[in-house]
Amino acid sequence: MDPEPRVIDYAPVLDGLMARGTADDARIEGRTLPDVPERTVFRPAGTGGPRAAQAAARRGRGWWVMLRLLREPLVHFLVLGAAIFLLFGALDDTPAPPPVARLEVTASDAARLVSQFEATWRRPPTPDELEGLIDQYIREEVLVREARTLGLDQGDAVIRQRLAQKMLFLTESAADAIDPSEIDLAEHLESHRERFETPARVAFEQVRLRPETPADVVLAAVREGTVPDDLVEGSMLPEQVPPSTEAMIDGTFGRGFYAEIKGFEPGVWAGPVDSAFGRHLVRLGSVVPKRLPPLEEIRAALEEDWRKELGRHLAEERLAALTAGYEVVRPAPEAVLAR
């Protein structure tokens, strides 16, 4: 059996090592550490057992290594550098770089570009043409996003008007999915007769008088069937006008001409009537009064007009509901005009 190891109290030895900083030159009570026998176990005096002595020795060696590290200049440098780095990170006010924005051209976007191309050119685009369309779309999308970032869409009257139109269109388009009943169409036709009535039409003959010619003399002559050439004056105006509406007649002879002649007795010369070109004698021909067509004759136009009217009504209701969600503050007109 191996002899029992000799026990030496290591506390004074470690105190000397930590005070002097080296184990080779440690002088404790006139002895050096290398003179300690191989089988010597260091442990504090008064403790029992080899295991306790070994544990205490390990703890002592750990403290000694830590103190050695704390005295190293490199450790001081690393600790100081880490502190400076953390302080700089805490006090640095440099803004973080913005995240990269994602611009994705989806399959539906590409399909819409194809549809627009086909509507214009009546054929599908080639792969190269589609690549060009996508490039153009990306360029436009980048410019639009950057313009919004700069606030260029704010205060622009054209953009504001376009956005308002799109909002109204979204509401009005809901009426396209609604089919009117026969009662709806009949009531709409009765309420808006003027939209569907065919206007009255009149046909007439006319002669233009010379400025100095007495109208009654020429009127008497034409009623007897003769038109004295020396009393009338030729012009680019038609002598015989086919059945025409008020808008057509006033567009040719001047405003108010239709209103003057519509009450004349058909087949009888009358006048004079003033126009934008002078004085005229007029003889009415056929007179076609205004007429309201039956519902079946104008069903398609009536349904379209009914949907438009419903869309406008829905848009007004929607706008009123949206406006109710705002606290509207507006100036008095008098106060604004008084400035």
Automatic annotation (TrEMBL):
Listed Pfam families: Rotamase_2 (PF13145)
Gene Ontology molecular function, alphabetical: peptidyl-prolyl cis-trans isomerase activity
Domain PpiC, chain residue ranges per copy: 180-299
Protein name per UniProt: PpiC domain-containing protein
Organism of origin: Acuticoccus sediminis
